[in-house]
Each structure stands twice: as C-alpha cells, then as structure tokens.
Design a protein that fits this description.
Length: 72
C-alpha cells in the first residue's frame, strides 16, 4: 500500500495537491482545480481542511523522488 506524502517536486503551496495527485494517479493541475472549486463553493471550509492536512501529512522523503538533474 502506498503512503500519502506532501510532494517535494510538484508543489505550489505546501505540496499537498501534488502528493494527492501522485497518490491517486492524476495530474496535479486537476487536483488543484478541484480543491479551488471546492474551496469557493464551501465558503472556505475546504481551506481549513487543506491547512490541517498540510500539517498532518508528512513531507515526501528526500530520496524517494526522481530528480530531473543528471550528475554524469
């Protein structure tokens, strides 16, 4: 079973949407749009859940993501 992490490589604010996108296998832009629309229509309630989840979900371990840099 895969574990949910906040993304280190695909992050705009806290990396939560990038981590959710990796976990679900979606594009991060889709998750961000869903979160934005949900925040607007919930009058900000989703924003509170986003902040709480950003605190509770751990950051992605440094060695677990593929770097785009080639050191050879």
């Amino acid at each position: 079973m895969r574990k949910l992490y906040r993304s280190q490589r695909d992050k705009k604010v806290s990396g939560l949407c990038g981590g959710l996108a990796d976990w679900f296998g979606f594009d991060a832009t889709v998750i961000r749009l869903i979160a934005l629309i949900a925040a607007i229509f919930s009058f900000g309630s989703v924003l509170i859940f986003y902040i709480i989840a950003s605190i509770l979900v751990p950051k992605e371990p440094i060695g677990s993501f593929n770097s785009n840099f080639d050191f050879n």
